[in-house]
## 1
Amino acid sequence: MEYKLFIDGQWVDSGHRLEVTNKYSQEVFAAVPAAGQEEVDKAIAAAQRAASVMADMPAYRRSEILARTAALITERKRDLAETIAIEAGKALKFALIEVDRAISTFTLAAEEARRVHGETIPLDAVPAGEGYFGFWLRRPVGVIAAVSPFNFPLNLVAHKVAPAIAAGNAVVLKPASTTPITAVKLCEILESAGLPAGAINLVVGPGSTVGEWLVTDPRVDKITFTGSPPVGEHILSVAGIKKVTLELGNTSPVIIAPDADLDLVAKKCAVGAYYNSGQVCISVQRIYSEKGISDPFTEKFVLASEAMVVGDPLDERVDVGPMIDPGEVDRIEGWVEEAVDGGAQVLTGGKRDEAIYWPTVLTNVEPEMKVVDQEAFAPVASVIPYDDFEGALELADASDYGLQAAVFTRDIQRVFKAIKRLNFGGVMINETPAYRADHMPYGGNRQSGLGREGVRFAVEEMTNIQMVAIKLDG
């Protein structure tokens, strides 16, 4: 199937085409043009023209467009889910959930579009403000470059595009080159929903070219990026003076206290570690279990891991499909082999089947091993015993990352110790780090990024505050 770029309300072609593969069969199923510098320039120029149109559009109209988008996504739910399963390798059962979440994200944005407002400020709270009336407004930043990853090709695009539209901005979207077709279909939907020409523009291509042209262009007012810390750091070094939101990953820790329900925790951790083949920024990776319960928990976790169904993601029984490309399987295979050479033990998994890496449980790992210290982004989790809860908090927090962490306990004292001690953007209690509701503030501390997503919070990131002070006596 041949697709096109979307620039200034028109579907356009370019010379070179990128092939998109079915990640399970590795067969080419679609092609999309690779944007050159000319296409990127036209997309930014179109967004710049549309930014004033969007800023002047009444809030209720932006809300209506977003609500229609949600309705059209609902009508195309099955097609979108199957596209995600094919091009991203995500199991269809989870792809369907992703579509439902995107519907929710656009619905939330439709509601939030009607709530973008400022507030008054009592300027006379200080002597210099006597005789003045003050208030502030939120104004759209203008042109937003949205650079999205492969692992949620619909909902992470939605988390960038929907709040941008709600706030009255225009967008140039660069989806991952491995999963661009879902974004193409979303642009078709946005066009049908009545979004003005230039308000959404789609360009596809490598980060080294298309991404670089976008983030360095002075006409772009904000960058929103999800990806790796090295790329995020590079963006900050070349972007110039513009607003930037970065979501950069995690080595998600889970702490299991001795009073936790081990059967429940084992099942939750298995899903949290292996859905989307572990290719989620908040996938369960480091599991710290108290020594007294470590053996029974590990046994239950291994059984839950082995119960995950592996295979073709279009099969609705399947839980775990292929990774995004065989090179990523090579990488995690090397990491696990390196850990085993260092004394780690593979309790289950540790094998591959072409593009699939089987759900893997490790033990006897060391903190400096890559499978513990770096973001695995693969279906690999390690179980690590601990002596006392305070020590577990220290181990969990001993990371350069700080996106989300989790604690399973019924003890309220442990809960508040964890909240106080863990330097993470989110602390989940009796749920895994993989938990996310689409309206909550979502983002990380430390090397996990800057800023927050979640529709209301993304709107705040995508607007500027304009202060107004009025001298009352003329």
## 2
Amino acid sequence: MGKTTKYVAKQPDENGFIHYTEEEHAVWNELITRQLPVVQKYACDEYLEALERMNFPRDRIPQCEEVSAVLRKATGWEVAPVPALIPFGEFFRLLADKKFPAATFIRSREEMDYLQEPDIFHEIFGHTPLLTDQRFADFTHAYGLAGLNASKEDRAMLARLYWFTVEFGLMNTPKGLKTYGAGIVSSMGETPYSIESDIPERRPFDPVTALRTPYRIDIFQTVYYVIDSLDDLFNVSNMDLFALIREAREKGMLPPTFPPPDENTPKWA
């Protein structure tokens, strides 16, 4: 995560309270108001039920402690306020400690539809609801523990597994194909694209294959991996992730399904 960002994270005061401006609250209101009907149509029931448990305010940015109180009761997780970008080591350490890192800034109006770095809307609306589901929480915890003990090279492999599940995962459901990944459910554009577009390839989820799949962060995804239920992720949490990495490395990387980056390529989020 050695990139730079123009955003500066908000620091909690001595009471742990983060002070946001009226404009920042207004941006949250606009983001959540327009996204709720989108996820109601395209997200899986597990995410929607978790979203209801979170009961996020619409008129203001929720405080991290408010979110943590719900998570603690459900699965023992918390939200940890962090700067806009943190090192991979710190990211894995927090997950291993059952703390989800949340950058405390919110995007500007100029970047409502695309933001390369994760902001508080993506972190809270996208990531925290499913952490109330024990299966998903256990997978995220196992992922953090593995990353904490991984080499730099293995962390690069693990990033792909996270990308194609936690961030951009899809699910087969009795109601059809639905989304659960945070990068999708927090994106007004990629939510319908991931389900309805005939452009991307949708593959049955296999952790080794996901570990072998390259991706780009600045375009709509060209490949999605589809689980049958959150049990699939829970099952991975009980596997030897380093053994999966070794198998993936032996098989070699799959060819990219996307064009190389170009300065004229449209970017979305």
